[in-house]
Amino acid sequence: MSARSSRADVLAAVPTLVDEAGELDRAANRALLTGLVDRLDGVFVAGTTGEFPALHRAERRDLIEIALDVFGPDRVVAHIGAAATRDAVTLARDAVAAGARRLAAITPYYLPVDADTVTRHFAAITEAGRDAVVYGYLFPDRTGVPADAEQFARAAVESGLAGAKLSGAAAALLAEFVAALPAGSLLWSGDDAALASVVRAGGRGVVSGSASAFPEPFTALADAVARGDAEAERTAQTEVDDVTAALDTVQGIKHALARLGLGTGVMRMPAPLVGAVERERIDRLVARAQAPVA
């Protein structure tokens, strides 16, 4: 992670690149990660942007192994979450065997659960993870599990979680989670445009799908906030807002990467096609990123 503890982390929530037939493209995924290694603080692998519900066990293991090989274990957060505790435990063991030291697990989803169920789920994962650090992943909009700071804090203490990634409605509650969790807990927001407010609320940084394609605006914003440079922050925030507005879907991120020469743009999961207006906005970002430096 970032060597400067006062600076926010910018982690890329990387998509899973597949070929035209939808099969995992290991070379393309390695090329994506290699292109990012010197441009941000780390990666979040096989998460929502990575279409994890549609990945097989072996594919998730392959993606984690590639990320570990490129970034090293201290800069990779391997998402091993699954709807079933049994599957999440298996994935945690796979990741640790591959050398992962940092794991993240989404709450159970689809069937309704209570706070005790969530705690048992996380406890099984932290036990399987052995010495790996484990973070929760809260995305109530997708899982149906409410984001309650006090309940999560109790679950974190009882199960041994070291923090969490907060996405969707949970991201707006980051300050409540900071206040509820023990000192030293790490919290990242999935609302990548809100990096400055995340830092000021006590969060560690952002996990950004958009940064997979255009990392520089996010790292520039993190640098400006760390320096206390208000003018640079305003400039960087404008660029971040442009990127996040254009890349607000996984398919949009994949389209941008394809225009940058990485992958096919094909989704593993069913999704709407990228519309003409979205393509135009993305193409402008690509042209700006590829423009020669004066």
Automatic annotation (TrEMBL):
UniProt keywords, alphabetically: Lyase, Schiff base
Gene3D superfamilies associated with the record: Aldolase class I
InterPro entries reported in the protein's UniProt record: Aldolase_TIM, DapA-like, Schiff_base-form_aldolases_CS
Residues that span the membrane, as ranges: none
Pfam families per the UniProt record, alphabetical: DHDPS
PANTHER family: 4-HYDROXY-2-OXOGLUTARATE ALDOLASE, MITOCHONDRIAL, DIHYDRODIPICOLINATE SYNTHASE
Family stated for the protein in its record: Belongs to the DapA family.
Protein name per the record: Dihydrodipicolinate synthase family protein
Species this protein is from: Pseudonocardia yunnanensis
